UniProtKB/TrEMBL annotation:
InterPro entries in UniProt: SAM-dependent_MTases_sf (IPR029063), UbiG_MeTrfase (IPR010233)
UniProt family annotation: Belongs to the methyltransferase superfamily. UbiG/COQ3 family.
Species: Thiobaca trueperi
PANTHER family: METHYLTRANSFERASE, UBIQUINONE BIOSYNTHESIS O-METHYLTRANSFERASE, MITOCHONDRIAL
GO terms of molecular function: 2-polyprenyl-6-hydroxyphenol methylase activity; 3-demethylubiquinol 3-O-methyltransferase activity; polyprenyldihydroxybenzoate methyltransferase activity
EC number: 2.1.1.222, 2.1.1.64
Annotated binding of S-adenosyl-L-methionine, by residue: R40, G60, D81, M125
Gene name of the record: ubiG
Keywords: Methyltransferase, S-adenosyl-L-methionine, Transferase, Ubiquinone, Ubiquinone biosynthesis
Reaction(s) catalysed by this chain's protein: a 3-demethylubiquinol + S-adenosyl-L-methionine = a ubiquinol + S-adenosyl-L-homocysteine + H(+); a 3-(all-trans-polyprenyl)benzene-1,2-diol + S-adenosyl-L-methionine = a 2-methoxy-6-(all-trans-polyprenyl)phenol + S-adenosyl-L-homocysteine + H(+)
Role according to the record: O-methyltransferase that catalyzes the 2 O-methylation steps in the ubiquinone biosynthetic pathway.
Protein name: Ubiquinone biosynthesis O-methyltransferase
Pathway terms, separated by semicolons: Cofactor biosynthesis; ubiquinone biosynthesis
Amino acid sequence: MTETYHNVDQAEISKFEELASRWWDPHSEFKALHDINPLRLDYIDRGAGGLAGKRILDVGCGGGILSESMALRGGRVMGIDMGAMPLRVADLHTLESGVEVEYRRVPVETLAAEQPGSFDVVTCMEMLEHVPSPASVIDACARLVRPGGHVFFSTLNRNPKSFLLAVVGAEYVLGMLPRGTHDYSRFIRPAELDAWIRPTRLRTIDMTGMTYNPLTRTYHLDPRNLDVNYLATCVRETDD
C-alpha cells in the first residue's frame, strides 16, 4: 500500500525525479542551483553566526548541493526530501565526495512531530513554491528549530517582473531551467511569507533579494531588490 501525504504534490516531485541523474552536473538543468549555491551558503553561514558544530536540517534538499556545502563548513547536516531519486543521487554523491550527510525521505511535518526543537539551523531553499501548503512547511520548520536558532527560506516573488524573468526569461528565452519548472501562481510575495511566519514562534529579521545579470551570467545579493528571487532569515523566539 502506497502512503500518501497531504502536503506533497506528486507532479512537482516527478519533475525533479526525471532530472535527478544530472543533479551534480554544473552544466545541466541544475546549473542555476550550482551558480547560486555559494551566495546562499554564505548568506546562511553569516546569518547563523557560523555553521561549524551546529546541527542543521536542509528541508527539500534534492540531490544535496546545499547540504554537502553546509557539511563542508563544519555543520552536522540532515537533508530531507520526498523525491526518492534525488535522495539516491545525494547518497551516492557522499560516497564520491566523502562528505558526511544524513538523508531521509520524510515529510517535514512528520519530522517536526518526531524531533521538535532538535536543530540549531533549518534551511528551506526553493521549496515553498512547490508544495500545496507553504504555511504547513513554515510551521514545521518553526517547530524543528531550537529556541534562539535560525531558519532560512528562499522563494520567488509573485509579480509581473518575476513572471517575465523567472518563467519567460529563465525557462523559455535563456533556457536556464527546464520549461515548466515553476508555476507562477505558486510564487510567494514577501508579505505573504511573513504572514505565514508570524503565527509561529519565528520572527523575520532579514530579507534579501538575489539578482541575475544575463550579460555576465552572475548572481548577486541585493537587500534593496526583492522583485524576483529573495531569501529570508528568521530566528526562533526563546521560551522565557
